[in-house]
Amino acid sequence: MKSINSVVTLDRVDGIAILRLDSPPVNALGLALREGILAGIAAALDGGARAIVLICEGRTFCAGADIAEFGKPLVAPLLPEDQAAIEASPVPVIAAIHGTALGGGLELALACHYRLAVPSASLGLPEVSLGLLPGAGGTQRLPRIVGVARALDMMTSGKPVSATTARELGIVDALAREGHLLDDAIAFARKVEGASAPLPRVRDRKVADTPEEAAAAIARLRQQQPRLFQGFKAPGHICEAVAASTLNDFEAGIAEELRLFQDLLASDESAAQIHAFFSERAVSKVPGLGKEVAARPVKATGVIGAGTMGTGITLALLAAGFTVTLVDRDAEALRRAAARVEKTVLDQVAKGRLNEDAAKAQLARLTLAESVESLADADLVIEAVFERMALKQQVFRELDAVVRPGAILATNTSFLDVDAIAAVTSRPGDVIGLHFFAPANIMRLLEIVRGKAVHGDVLATAIWLARKLGKLGVVSGVCDGFIANRLMARRGEAADALMLAGASPDQIDRVMTDHGFPMGPYRMMDLVGLDVVGWDRENSAGRTVQEILCEAGHWGQKTGSGYYEHASGTPVVSSATLAAIDTVRAREGISPRPIGDDEILSGLLDVIVNEGAKLVEEGIVYRAADIDMALIAGYGWPVYRGGPMFWGDAVGLSGIVERLKARIAQGQPITLSPLLERMAAKGQRFVRA
Ligand code: COA
Fold this sequence. Notes:
CATH architecture of the largest domain: Alpha-Beta Complex
Shape: globular
Number of domains: 3
Oligomer: single chain
Protein name: 3-hydroxyacyl-CoA dehydrogenase NAD-binding domain-containing protein
Catalytic activity: a (3S)-3-hydroxyacyl-CoA + NAD(+) = a 3-oxoacyl-CoA + NADH + H(+)
CATH superfamily of the largest domain: 2-enoyl-CoA Hydratase, Chain A, domain 1
Number of helices: 28
Structural class: alpha/beta
InterPro entries: 3-OHacyl-CoA_DH_NAD-bd, 3HC_DH_C, 6-PGluconate_DH-like_C_sf, ClpP/crotonase-like_dom_sf, Enoyl-CoA_hyd/isom_CS, Enoyl-CoA_hydra/iso, NAD(P)-bd_dom_sf
Pathway: Lipid metabolism; fatty acid beta-oxidation
Number of strands: 20
Distance between the termini: 41 Å
Family: Belongs to the enoyl-CoA hydratase/isomerase family. In the N-terminal section; belongs to the enoyl-CoA hydratase/isomerase family.
Bound molecules: coenzyme A
């Protein structure tokens, strides 16, 4: 075996060259691999190889370009040079695929003369999720194999296909046996080497669709999936590049692809999405908690409280394969929760998302119980009772008395002090906060709240659990509202201040949806319920717009009106809301002024960046990127904007500080984060390189 460089080796079996790529963890096509492939192909040909098998070591075939190289000056050889060398090879080059051939990995394979894959492999072009398009010929080669519609679907969804589907589509020429990829690739090479026909190259094929058919397919896609294109730039560019492939001038198509790729690479959307890619992976890393700290085994779980949250958590646990004992003293509440669990699971069968056997298995794993005694053997118990400290402490005392030692006791509190809950037990190190967002079976964010005493392996278990549930676990220290709700509370206050100053609730909501949020703060309040968030029924003094609306029974969608009137199709700001705003303005002596959209945008977002800076300086988060991920996963912050800290870096921290100071001077109750002020003064950034 010959070393080509640090990541590529060359072997020979009966005249067949085996080019092995080995760049852990995912064989991303960084410079060393690109150099190694180029030199390896040349060496194989110099050595008289009759065919070349390109295969990867480790867990996967190449999972794409090295994303870490994006944004830095590109260093040759680039992937197209490797592809050109492969396509120019006088002997067949065969890609042998296991794991995932993604992005540049699939593009590399598409330049090979043949592709072989084990059935468990998957292949795809996921660049769209990084705000990019496949920039190494993917938009030109894939349509030549699968046609325009399918290519568009794969590239705009970013979803990989299984090797079996790829075989049916013709992306893969043959399937190999699981565990025998190399043997089968060598056998395949023997079959095709020396054939008299010219070597097949995808670039030499014609796209089956005409330009008119491509235009129709693109129009259909835009009509059927308008949200793909909202705010996101890459899907439109992908359509343009694929349309170019139907002109059947390969080089011109490649030039068009490159132009579009470079435009995306320079875009804010792509920078934001790449930031989100790396941040998503960073959040699960806890400083000081190495891989040697193993998660505790969890199979049997318990949930206390059969309300909305408890039921949602139960659904999430069942779907992830856990057994769940749902406990509530109220037999009627238990019955209702069980019915909702059953309905939700069966609805998924009806929608074709779950097969009947899996549904039955999920439901069979649920047990109902009226006493915490039934949780004696649980590995993990999640408490989801009413949000009152005394009640939660009582539940934890009871749990402490019955649950086996070593089990994890979690609270789903959304703002209470986890340390004060842990303190009533004899095992505060085993207590943790698991803050789910409603609906708990759907929302992606799981805030993992670490109390002072929490054991490392309990934290590790919570991080493992989040992954198992398909959620994004973000670790937070103990503070009021933790990460996401604490930040969004500041946005709510800023919105109210601007509403009194002259903006209308629907203007404020529109500015937020224009920015990419699924809904603005007032529509959200109407959905959640004005009575649920921030209204203290016993001490309501009718001083704020929310209090006035709540006292008059306008609690949001569930009562037919809140900030908006929901009776007719499109919600309109209600006359009660306008009257309440007038009342408060009159009392506070505010004469309304016209407020521009820009003032609303910065007014609502600057305070989030300011509060985010406080989370960093208080050590509530490990890194600023955690804040971005919490808001993307928990509040639908548009991923193509990268989250608040990324946004703050992009618009400039010094501008934010200036605007905040001006608002403070106007008497707004904002306190400036010293960290934000310091970083702005030094021209530093939170997350952007
Ligand atoms: N470039 C650079 N680094 C990459 C990478 C890429 N294309 N793909 C993955 N990595 C890194 C991750 O950042 C992570 O690094 P870390 O361990 O330091 O956090 C590591 O490889 C493992 O990735 P992870 O996603 O945690 O592993 P996984 O087994 O869950 O998933 C993949 C593997 C390949 C499916 C997944 O990483 C992925 O989808 N990668 C991106 C593929 C892509 O978009 N390719 C097109 C690029 S243009």
